[in-house]
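Lecture 7 notes: from sequence to structure.

We start with a single chain of 512 residues. Read the sequence below before looking at the structure.
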Amino acid sequence: MPKRFGLMLLAFVVILLPHGVVVAAPDLYAAVIPALRDGVMAQTEGELSTYTLDVRFDPAASTIGGRERLTWVNRFDQPLNDVAFRLYPNAFYYGEGGTTIEDVRVAGEAATGSSEVGETVLRVPLTEAVPPGGSVNLSFRFRTVIPTNSDGTYGIFNHDTATGTWVLADWYPIVAGYETGTGWRLDEPTALGDPTFSDAALYDVSVDAPAGFSLVATGSAVETSTTVDGTETQFASGPAREFTLVADDDYQATSTTVDGTTITAYVNPNTGSDAGAALALETAARALHAYSARYGAYPYEELDLVETDLSSSVLAVSWTGVIFLEGPNLLANPSFVETDPARLDFTVAHEVGHQWWGALIGANSNDHTFMVEGLTNALATIYVEDTQGKDAARRQIQDELADRYLNALESAGDGIVDLPITTPRQGPSAGVLDYGKAALGFLAIREAIGDDAFFAALSDYAARFSYRNATPDDLRAAFERASGQDLTDFWHVWFNAAETTPADVEQVVAGV
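Now the structure, written as tokens:
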């Protein structure tokens, strides 16, 4: 059905605060581990936008919606006179799904918003430009229709009637990603990858849901109260890339705790996923500890592993504090659980890695997928090395990275890694290049500059860009600062050219 906005005249409360005067209430950081809370607040307080959502989840109507209030902070280097929101549910591949906006309020002033990019963008003009460091308060009501049994973007926004699971990623209006020199990134949403490109923010989200539903979400539940026909749960996120929500009426949960974080695996009954979920929980605990030791502590009190029915052969998708794990093809698949559990281990470790590379440190993953996927795959092999030894790591590099890329080299030749995901590729597929060649490139950098410089670079990169978005130049600069080497030519060969040879790959594997 066609999407449409419930407005053309928009009213917004617009309050410009003095430069730098935006203080987040301490309870917005309730999801952060207490020992780390002061440090995270010192790093982000006054710099992050704050979303306050008061919504009703109505499974009978297949909707979620309510009031959204946003204190938007201009973190960029020039004054901005509008704010662009992404309405991802209006993407063509979500069928009957969609978001409408109405009852937009302004303290006495009205503004006219414009619908753009196939109604997946709402651009809101401001009464006056917001300077760098300044802020503006926006408010509106929205209603999102949740599609049924949708496989759009791997099933990340969907009511799965087979399991009774409501998978809600990208379900609310979110401020678009912004890049210096380009402005708001308002590309048409692509079904080829994760469409979400956003800045870190703080979330205060209250969800009113019918009785009997378990809600799994980014952040932590800080208050629960009984309503007339259900329960209202308030979540606080701490700094988060987005707010993801899953609802189910019969989830079964198993938990463990590591380094102050409770990790919980949620599965549907009678799906055969219990054994796989138990293995995934063990991996997540090992990986969280290993990554925290290497790259800086995981900051949140919770990490949730959620069984969902993903599509297009995707095994897992990671969000801030929430990881979707495919049920039939991963958790309930004997090939992963019994025959070769190392594959399940590697898959889950990869997704835990995204809590750093993608969630904590953001990037435009549609334009520069290798920064997120290639780096995470490379570091998943280092997790294997740290926890199971070099021989196990070498096997994973050979199986997960080298063999697939060498096969593609032989059949299709080489290709360029650093291209937007929608750009047609010459040579191997984008998946082979971004997950295989790119990962081997990062391992080649490790070999070239040595372990001390390599891990110092990643720790420095994480410290500089936590709760921010980085570019390929930022990542390369971290390796160059730590090593004292000019890596321009090296970077070009692995990421910007189609010049890599089988001998280059064999050298990486031999160097482990």
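The longest helix spans residues 390-412. Keep this in mind for problem set 3.
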